[in-house]
Design goal:
This protein is an alpha+beta fold. It has a domain at 18-54. The protein has two helices and three strands; from the N terminus they run ααβββ. The longest helix has 6 residues, at 3-8. The radius of gyration is 18 Å and the shape is elongated. The model has no long low-confidence stretch (mean pLDDT 83).
């Protein structure tokens, strides 16, 4: 299935949305339940990474 055919079927899918994030947070599981929390922030077209925990 090519992209043009997918675009032609967009009326069947309903409205499509684009989300633009300025900040995201990820949690990485740990066996001891001390999850690693990572935060990424968009600052002037560059993503900065912060470790929130531990």
């Amino acid at each position: 299935m090519n992209l043009l055919r997918i675009l032609n079927l967009s009326h069947l899918l309903g409205p499509l949305y684009q989300v633009t994030a300025r900040e995201v947070e990820f949690w990485q599981a740990n066996e001891d339940r001390k999850h690693t929390r990572l935060q990424y922030k968009l600052d002037c077209d560059r993503w900065t990474k912060n470790i929130l925990w531990p």
